[in-house]
What we know:
Elements: H1 11-24, H2 28-41, H3 67-71
Amino acid sequence: MAAIHIRNVPEKTLRALRERAHRHGRSMQQELLEIIETATTEPTDSPAPEPIQLTTAHTSGKSTWRREDLYDDSGR
């Protein structure tokens, strides 16, 4: 099985990991492996947002406005 080596871990982080492992009744290695396995099994794709509902309003008159008149962008 492969191994991972992490350097320059701050003492505060090590202390928190030791406490967490102790609370769960595990060694630090078991605790870190659990954290890594949990992180790699989380879904990576977020659900698609709900579709937008559009409503079209119909008017009785005819418009002579052009897109350029409204947006001043030469149709871009």
